[in-house]
């Protein structure tokens, strides 16, 4: 049995994520995160990360999945699209297959979001370029939870300075 390139998880590279100072600043100035592709199924990584963000960070979390229906995660309901959110999300955290990323990137740009974050295993260079050209920060193929936990003390310190 072989794994095709389509099924393989691409190793993260330094080019996929800003340096620690930029990431710290990105996290420190953010107040909201839209989790695109969040699942109401607690066995899904998108659900687990959304729950972790809700329980361990100061961000207002918005769940985006047109199939979410009347489901919720810890009392947070689902929105059909980014443009139906009541706020402009600072970070758009994407749990969608790469072939869906272009549409999400365009929606993120239209929404005025500041950062397009493609979760671990997800990268789409043309969408990343488009988002950067629109002035957005871009992270590809990295887990938002891992990066936040790794930089938590620096983020807290940066927030304290901003206050």
Describe the structure.
- With 163 residues, the chain is an alpha/beta fold.
- It has a single domain (15-162), classed as Rossmann fold (3-Layer(aba) Sandwich), CATH 3.40.50.720.
- It is built from five helices and seven strands.
- It has helices spanning 20-29, 45-56, 101-111, 125-133, 144-162, and strands spanning 32-36, 60-64, 72-73, 76-79, 91-94, 115-118, 137-139.
- A seven-stranded mixed beta sheet has the order 3-4-2-1-5-6-7.
- Helix 1 crosses helix 5 (144-162) and helix 3 packs parallel to helix 4.
- It is globular, with a radius of gyration of 15 Å.
- The model is unreliable at 1-8 (pLDDT under 50).
The main sheet orders its strands as 3-4-2-1-5-6-7
Instruction: Provide the structure class.
Output: alpha/beta
CATH topology: Rossmann fold
Radius of gyration: 15 Å
Q: What general form does the structure show?
A: globular
- Tell me the name of the CATH class: Alpha Beta
Strand content: 15-25%
Poorly predicted regions: 1-8
Overall mean confidence score, pLDDT:
92
Kindly give the count of domains. 1
Helix and strand succession? Answer: HEHEEEEHEHEH
- Number of DSSP helical runs: 5
State the distance separating the first and last CA atoms. Answer: 55 Å
* Overall number of strands: 7
Largest β-sheet summary:
7 strands, mixed
Portion of residues in helices? Answer: 25-40%
What would you give as the CATH superfamily?
Answer: NAD(P)-binding Rossmann-like Domain
